[in-house]
Design a protein that fits this description.
Distance between the termini of chain C: 21 Å
Order of helices and strands of chain B: HHHHHHHH
Strand order of the largest sheet of chain C: 2-1-3-4-5
Largest sheet of chain C: 5 strands, parallel
Number of strands of chain B: 0
CATH class of chain C: Alpha Beta
Structural class of chain C: alpha/beta
Strand content of chain C: 15-25%
CATH topology of chain C: Rossmann fold
CATH class of chain B: Mainly Alpha
Oligomer: heterotrimer
Chains: A alpha+beta (361), B mainly alpha (129), C alpha/beta (152)
Strand content of chain B: under 5%
Largest sheet of chain B: none
Radius of gyration of chain C: 16 Å
Shape of chain C: globular
Distance between the termini of chain B: 19 Å
CATH architecture of chain B: Orthogonal Bundle
Number of helices of chain C: 6
CATH architecture of chain C: 3-Layer(aba) Sandwich
Radius of gyration of chain B: 16 Å
Number of domains of chain B: 1
CATH topology of chain B: Hypothetical protein MTH393
């Protein structure tokens, strides 16, 4: 167990590059990192314990406060899990609206992840471009749902508001603008020689290691594992969906997977808008009791809710397995071990898009 | 242990993670498989694993259990891969020692169950010590 | 002469604000809204506010989140590292009341004002970036403008 260690360098909890507090103790030999220990507990709020014994009307709002970045998908997965228990089917228009909102949220999340990475490797120009694009995505989210973050848009048996025709036209116009800009930024990132120096071949996660740590989402897809829960979702199957996979497994691949998924999301929203039928958006229904394990694809990977509810729809037991749990483990215990210099620790950690609030709940 | 600035006793925080519903179920399954008491195993896990590992334990356990069986039945029964690679409950050398002990028994002609029992006894000693 | 110098100093001091933020256990929503202030649309730096995230260079500390057990001592340490004059602003509902997390079974220990003095708070779940900028801008003159004259 004991290794020869020169210096142990703690990184965090308050760090200029990190949005959230986490502490990584890096054991180094020379400049090489040979082992890491993660210290969490800065964000442990005990959400699962608070949720227990509460009716679904309250748990719904708690669920989206598990993570503020990807709040829509937490809302969506919880509501769809409750719908699976109670055998409610949302009206078709509501199902497509869910996809639209979920993809907008995914775009916001991927943009902030790529912003953080560019900011960490001190490419501030590209970072600010990306952060500005995120504002336009959030505008669209606000237009449809009424809030920027924590939207509470989905309810059992449908969604809260319908999408008006003029709003759909605004959304289409914004998507055109976003696509043009994002294509330029992707080219900037893919072709930047200094970015390549900081990113290519750094923090490699092989396919075997990714499988061992159960890595999910863009982290796994950059290592050549084609997992995406969206391929099992009925609405996405109707729209047509193919996961983005790269095989390099380094920082560069992870960021590029997110850029490609941004483009894919734009396409999905467009197709959803085109295929959306007319009709009601609220079907209604009654939440019943039961037990379910339901997975959905969050921006960071597979998100699983284990719910046991009683016959009044009260949540008796709940466990949330967020994607960051697996990705942070894969990142700190496999990627960081091969890192050549301590200067790459922060950028490698950010490239796996860690969300500590998700991780600790 | 290396001494850090601002070091804090993390045991209560790690315990908070371990009593989460999924983790609790995983610890129960592991304790049943190894034949030790749950509280003893928890103490051992808190000493060995860091907080990110503890959070990810249920997922790793699922992956380890779903892994296809190898051609060595004894290694599978003892969980050589599962308890070292997937969840680092034991160091490779500790597992090696227990495995050698059981392997010797099998080579001497003892049935598999007895050998597995003997190997688990050795592992149990590591946990309780 | 000293008066003129003092006036110049006051003017400069209230127009160059360095901000550090510390997340004491939020849902991330408020973090992201603070980060969104950096974006060219809101352009924090045109008001002379610079987000630093280094407590030793900061003037204003933005506290986000509802104070988990790990932070009880560390938050005080971060606060002590900030040089005078300083102020803390609570962003969001969490540092004010604990928001949805202050229920039976949670591990949190709000409000943050138990641990460090809070000068202003911006309620909201989460507040909009414009509100955060407004809070910083309206607090800055009252704390920093006549700091040296106020000093006994």
């Amino acid at each position: 167990m004991k290794k020869t260690v020169d210096v142990s360098i703690p990184v965090g909890p308050v760090h200029p590059c990190w949005k959230e507090p986490v502490r990584i103790k890096c054991e180094t030999r020379g400049e090489h990192v040979i082992g890491t220990e993660v210290e969490l507990g800065y964000m442990k709020k005990g959400i699962e314990r608070i949720m227990q014994g509460r009716p679904w009307q309250e748990v719904m709002f708690l669920a989206e406060r598990v993570c503020g970045i990807c709040s829509v998908v937490h809302n969506m997965v919880f509501i769809e899990a409750m719908e699976t228990i109670s055998e409610i089917t949302p009206p078709p228009r509501a199902a497509y609206l869910r996809v639209v909102v979920n993809e907008l949220d995914r775009m916001a999340s991927h943009l902030i992840a790529n912003f953080s990475y560019c900011y960490t490797i001190e490419h501030e120009t590209l970072a600010m471009y990306l952060l500005n694009e995120r504002e336009y995505v959030l505008d669209m989210l606000e237009m449809i749902t009424g809030n920027r973050v924590n939207t509470a848009y989905m309810i059992p048996g449908g969604v809260r508001y319908d999408l008006r025709e003029e709003d759909a036209a605004t959304l289409r116009a914004t998507l055109d603008r976003l696509e043009e800009n994002l294509r330029r930024y992707t080219k900037m990132f893919a072709g930047g020689p200094l970015i390549a120096l900081r990113s290519k071949g750094v923090g490699i996660l092989t396919k075997e290691e990714a499988l061992e740590a159960h890595a999910v989402g863009p982290t796994a897809r950059a290592s050549g594992i084609a997992v995406d829960c969206r391929s099992n979702h009925p609405t996405y199957q109707e729209i047509g969906f193919e996961p983005v996979v790269r095989t390099e497994g380094d920082n560069y691949a992870r960021i590029m997977v997110r850029f490609e998924e941004l483009m894919q999301s734009i396409g999905l929203i467009r197709r959803a808008l085109a295929m959306m039928p007319e009709g009601p958006v609220r079907g209604g229904g009654e939440c019943k009791g039961g037990k379910v394990r339901y997975s959905g694809e969050a921006p960071r990977g597979e998100l699983t809710y284990f719910i046991r509810a009683d016959r009044y729809g009260r949540v008796e037991e709940i466990a949330i397995q967020t994607p960051s749990i697996m990705n942070i483990d894969a990142c700190t215990h496999y990627m960081l071990k091969g890192v050549i210099s301590i200067a790459d620790v922060t950028s490698t950690f950010i490239s796996s898009d860690p969300c500590i609030a998700c991780n600790e709940r | 242990m290396t001494k850090y600035l601002y070091e804090k006793d993390l045991r209560p925080l790690k315990y908070n993670i371990l009593v989460g519903p999924r983790q609790d179920r995983t610890v129960k399954a592991m304790a049943d498989r190894l034949g030790v008491r749950r509280q003893v195993l928890r103490r051992h896990l808190i000493e060995r694993l860091d907080m990110s590992n503890l959070e990810n334990m249920p997922a790793r356990w699922e992956v380890g259990c779903a892994a296809p069986a190898s051609d060595d039945a004894l290694a599978d029964a003892l969980g050589c891969e599962l308890f070292v690679e997937n969840i680092a409950v034991f160091t490779p050398s500790e597992m090696e020692a227990a495995y050698e002990k059981a392997r010797d028994l099998v080579d001497d002609g003892a049935p598999l169950e007895t050998a597995v029992k003997e190997g688990k006894k050795a592992l149990k000693e590591v946990i309780t010590s | 002469m000293t008066d003129l110098l003092q006036k110049l100093k006051n003017a400069v001091r209230s127009r160059s604000i360095h901000v550090a933020y510390v997340d004491t256990g939020s849902c991330n929503g408020c973090d992201i809204e603070v980060l969104a202030c950096l974006s060219p649309r809101y352009d924090l730096e045109q008001y002379g506010i610079y987000v630093h995230n280094n407590p030793r260079e900061a003037d204003i500390l933005l506290v986000i989140g509802c104070c988990t057990p790990q932070w009880e001592d560390k938050l005080k340490e971060v606060w002590e590292k900030i040089p005078e004059p300083k102020a803390a602003i609570a962003i969001g509902n969490c540092p004010v009341s604990g928001c949805v997390f202050n229920r039976e079974g949670g591990y949190v220990n709000p409000p943050v004002s138990k641990h460090i003095p809070i000068a202003a708070s911006v309620p909201g779940c989460p507040p909009r970036p414009t509100e955060i900028i407004r809070a910083v801008l309206s607090l800055a003159p009252t704390i920093f403008a006549d700091y040296e004259e106020k000093k006994p």
